[in-house]
Design goal:
Bound molecules: zinc ion
Structural class: alpha+beta
Radius of gyration: 18 Å
Oligomer: single chain
CATH architecture of the largest domain: 2-Layer Sandwich
Number of helices: 7
Largest sheet: 4 strands, antiparallel
Strand content: 25-35%
Order of helices and strands: EHEEHEHEHEHEHHEEEEE
CATH class of the largest domain: Alpha Beta
């Protein structure tokens, strides 16, 4: 058993942080310190997310049919993109596809837009079809911590239209659970809130392990909690607490 310290500032850190119109990003400087290039490109991503993308592309993209289109963006870059899109495409289009500054997952270094490798790739809406190598990528992505973040019929929840090209790193096994259940990340956060201790946790079994997942709300600036599992990871939810993932 281990006693773990939870601090308020850590609510805004971790692979599972929820970023949307109601939950802006808060720790940009720290995010910038943990960025590395993606697959020999000039694009930057969070180190763990970048490693995983690299591993997936090595396995599925033998003919170089997939390329990173947009990865990490600073607040300034997001601002410029948002304003430029309003000028070029109008407010309706921009509201559907471009998040306001500080509400874009691209500022977290955990999101990557991928495109079919062809001339004249659309920077905001690149083509990433549902066949061949692109679906092979999708199958491996969910086993390696990535979700297709903006799905059809979830616009009301996410505030963003369907984006087949936008993948968000949340870590395994959350990626597989979310994809198998067809949830938006917002819905997954709400679901996990229903499990509020190690004893009352959501159990997920894959072929190797049993995973136990639960939410801990933070009522004070700091809190201590005993965790029994030997292997665990913790992520803030970017709202009011933490998601704890134990492997057994
Ligand atoms: Zn994107």
């Amino acid at each position: 058993m281990k006693t773990v310290l939870f601090r308020k500032e850590d609510i805004y850190r971790g692979n599972l942080i929820l970023i949307n119109r109601d939950n802006p990003i808060r720790v940009e400087e720290e995010i910038k310190r943990n960025l590395v290039p993606v697959a020999n490109s000039h694009h930057l991503l969070n180190r763990e997310a970048s490693d995983k993308i690299h591993q997936i592309l090595i396995k599925v993209d033998l003919n170089n049919e997939i390329r990173p289109v947009s990865c990490f963006r600073s607040k300034e870059e997001q601002e410029n993109l948002y304003n430029q899109s309003i000028r070029d495409n109008g407010m309706d289009f921009t509201r559907k596809y471009v998040a306001r500054p500080d509400t874009s997952e691209h500022q977290s270094g955990l999101a990557i837009d991928l495109g079919e490798n062809k001339p004249d790739i659309d920077f905001i809406c690149p083509s990433f079809p549902y066949h061949g190598v692109f679906n092979k990528f999708r199958r491996l992505a969910k086993l390696n911590g990535f979700i297709e973040r903006y799905k059809e019929d979830k616009e009301q929840i996410t505030g963003i239209s369907k984006e087949p090209w936008h993948f968000r790193y949340v870590g395994y096994p959350h990626s597989l659970i979310i994809e198998e259940a067809g949830l938006a990340l917002e819905e997954y956060h709400d679901f996990v809130r229903g499990f509020d201790s190690e004893e009352n946790s959501f159990l997920y079994r894959d072929t190797e392990y049993t995973w136990s997942i639960f939410y801990v709300g933070l009522l004070d600036d700091i809190m201590y909690l005993d965790i029994k599992a030997d292997y665990y990871s913790i992520s803030g939810n970017n709202r009011d607490g933490f998601i704890i993932t134990c492997r057994k």
